[in-house]
Structures
1.
Amino acid sequence: MLALRAHKLSSWREVKVIWGIQVPQQMTETQAFSDLELDSRRNAISELVTAHNYTGLWKMGIEVVEKESAVGESCYETAFPPSIYPRDILTKVISSWEIRNSPKIGDVAIYFNTRSRSTVHLGRITENGRIRSRWGLGGMLCEHSPLDIPIYCGRELTILYFSEPK
């Protein structure tokens, strides 16, 4: 399940399920889906990433910004500056940063496993409202829509957007 936008929630219950995907209560089915069924699309993305098929990713609307990281970065190092990573990264973010309804440029998108609430992926919001994130350790750096992440990140996900305190 994938929540498309997070709200300042006191609980995780302010969502509804459309076709097995958690979305905010006010979101319609049309807003929640693209033409392809989400699992099929995310499976296709995983296959293209594994095959290093950059043209296929581009055709799906995913921009490969960097083909691989020479220093073996993961999505964590890419999303946060060295001053924050790796010490207590998520504890700091979740406890002191603001959850946003509408992400702004530079905000962090954190993908959680909906059941275990463990973090599975991180990215930063770009100027066009997309997410820039690294897929895999030392893997490609991509700019993509919030839903367009490889299926190996998990099937039941919740996305929360966080903004650094001023």
Note: Strands lie at 2-3, 15-18, 21-24, 63-66, 98-100, 108-113, 119-125, 131-135, 140-144, 157-163.
2.
Amino acid sequence: MSTAAHRLSVVIPSYNALGTIEPLLTALSAIQPDFPGGMQVVISDDSSTDGTVPELRLSYPQFSYREGRRNLGFGGNVNAGVQEADGEHIAIVNTDIELPADPFRILLDELRTSPELFAVMPLIWNTNFMKVENLQYLMVRRGLAWNADMSQEFEYTQLVRELLEQSGNPAFRLADLMEGREPVQSILCGALFVCSRKRFLDLGGFDTRYRPFYWEDVGLGYEAKRRGWQCAAVPRALCLHRHSVSIDRKVGAAKLDYLLLNQLRFVLANRDQLHGLRGARFWWLMRGLRMQFGGSKMLREAYMHVAMGRDDV
């Protein structure tokens, strides 16, 4: 049986990421040399037009690069990057993530001691430490599934506000404060997570129906749930997220349409696991009819199709 070349492969899906990705790569450059078991960094580029790969090769020659010839969307780009990875475990990390400290050792230790976990995440904070983005559960309402904050999110936010009123580095103070806190089960967040490469591939990777982005991470977490595996956030690890910087550059205002369309696709794919969908066709029909007088043609057609019993959206 072959063994992995590295303990961890960090896969970074990128698209026109110059000016965004550099803080992350600088942090990884400091973490990589002494990482136990070895760390590979793979930048998987989704057919950028800004010269991302040639520029980054000059500044970060120690990393591996995949240059896509056509745009695959977020999920397809991640899957292609994972195929280039040789680590026992993979970390999927967005280009707009910042790492005040190394979260990977803590996350790998948690995976090692908790085999029921498919994926682990740090607490993902916005850049002013005022909100945790990934302590969430799914709430089904009016025919769709929505991300809802857990009560722990408020608790952690209050703790951070207290830290910000004190002197010192908030990131390291926060890590100390979270010491001893148990992992919190949550839906999977694709901004940063670590999992077994084998398990990721066994699940088929990200479902590319969620093109170009959004909901592929939640969908993967629900596929893991079918196998009896869980996803959890580990409070002792943290990162910062300049939320949606890369997506805003790519599609701007159209991102809401993709969010809602993939939200619908997720519900259709996971109806057997979701509770509260009674009357969903009525709500889909109402949304489609409202859009007859304005709004996205793509969404209008999707809502009308599923209201009439068709799943081809």
Note: The first strand starts at residue 6 and ends at 14.
3.
Amino acid sequence: MDRIETPHAGDDHAVDDDVVSLLMRQHGDIRNLFDEVERTDGDERRDAFRRLVRLLAVHETAEEEVVHPFARRNLPGGEEVVEDRLAEERAAKETLSALDDMDTDDPKFLPRLLELRRDVQEHARSEERYEFTHIRRGADAAALASMAKGVKAAEAMAPTRPHPGVQSAAANMALGPVAAVMDRTRDAVRAAMGKDGGKQG
């Protein structure tokens, strides 16, 4: 009964007021971007990797601002669950940072990317099992909608597909430092949610 339906990656019709559907869709987009980085090379690989870095940064920031505060307050053993997820995120960020300093054509790049992919996938499975199922079961409609608002604000900061010839502010921001992207995402999430962090009730 706790099975979570996974929206198709890139499905713009995922339920807009269901934070779990939105986050599961992002997990699908992340998997697709890993595939794209692996199968391309040269400028295509560099572009796909920049989009992957950006989506990972935005996704993790949204979870830190939206999912983890709710989990701490409302899940059984929430504090421990969140600390475990944060430890996984820190490890992934270290690998991501090392990759970010490498050229995507470096022979060492792909093995490190595969290491990152393994860590990110394990982290996503843990989120789905220990956080998402409990959120869907325990959050009321208002809390789900409030959290979804924050995730959508974050998602707007991370285009997952290239738009040739279009110089949007969001596309230009993809070239900025990851830390700056995370800061802007955090501000956008907090503004969208009225700084309530998905508080239940």
Note: Residues 42 and 105 are 7 Å apart (CA to CA).
